[in-house]
Amino acid sequence: MIVLNGVALTPDLSGVLYWDDRRTLVVADLHFEKASHFAARGQPLPRYDTALTLAALTDVIARRAPERVICLGDSFHDSQAGERLETENADALRALTARYDWIWVAGNHDPAPPENLGGTVVHDFCMGPLTFRHIAHADARAGEISGHFHPKAAVPTRWRRVVRPCFAVNATRVILPAFGSFTGGLNVWDPAIASLLEPEFEVVMLGNDKLHRFGCGALDSAVYYR
């Protein structure tokens, strides 16, 4: 459980955040059609990332049974991503947006999400004591939930250095991990993230079968990956 500005929130092993009292599911950085974006530029990548991401999102929505879904920006990898959606994926997405109160928060990759897929587009979205946006504001008041940075944390162990996506949490904000199946990540000790979290913060790491909570002092601060 994460308590932010008096609100109890449930981090999910999938990488979404659930606000039980408001039956609201929050997800960040889906990056639909990222692979096709790079494939069109000469990189031979398989175009299955959108289907995988959409299937995973559909599964967690079915499990959590929300009334509302808030997507925290960069849901689409670029301004033409909606046009590249395969018909099956576009239809599945329209079915979701028609069934739930669906909020698209605009991101830096998708400042104008496609209008023909349903849902409501906003820049910031406030509900009760919480504010939902794509990129965290350094001077934000308590209760900010955002994405954008794709946070990961590294924990040294006796045998190896374990690097996993994570929720990054302090007294003011929660930064969600990227949900998209074809997304990288940034170490929480990178100055871009750490400057928003210091001096004291914790992470909730996504493990193979459960979540793991660590204080910042337990994390490997070397900003590199395996």
Observed structural traits:
single chain, 226 residues, alpha/beta, Purple Acid Phosphatase, chain A, domain 2, 9-stranded mixed beta sheet, 7-stranded mixed beta sheet, 5 helices
Q: Quick recap of the structure?
A:
20% of the residues lie in helices and 29% in strands. It is an alpha/beta fold. The model has no long low-confidence stretch (mean pLDDT 89).
Secondary structure layout:
Layout: E1 2-4, E2 7-11, E3 17-19, E4 24-27, H1 34-39, H2 49-64, E5 68-71, H3 81-84, H4 87-99, E6 101-105, E7 120-122, E8 125-127, E9 130-132, E10 144-146, E11 151-156, E12 161-169, E13 173-175, E14 186-187, H5 191-197, E15 202-206, E16 211-215
Parallel strand pairs: 4-5, 5-6, 6-7, 9-10, 10-13, 11-14
Antiparallel strand pairs: 1-2, 2-3, 3-4, 8-9, 11-12, 12-13, 12-15, 15-16
Helix pairs in contact: 2-4
Q: Describe it for me?
A:
The chain has one domain (2-218): 4-Layer Sandwich (Purple Acid Phosphatase, chain A, domain 2), CATH 3.60.21. β2 (7-11) and β3 (17-19) form a beta hairpin. The strands form 2 sheets. Strands 8, 9, 10, 11, 12, 13, 14, 15 and 16 form a 9-stranded mixed β-sheet that branches. The chain has a 7-stranded mixed β-sheet with strand order 1-2-3-4-5-6-7, covered by helices on one side. α2 packs parallel to α4. It is 20% helix and 29% strand. By secondary structure, it is of the alpha/beta class.
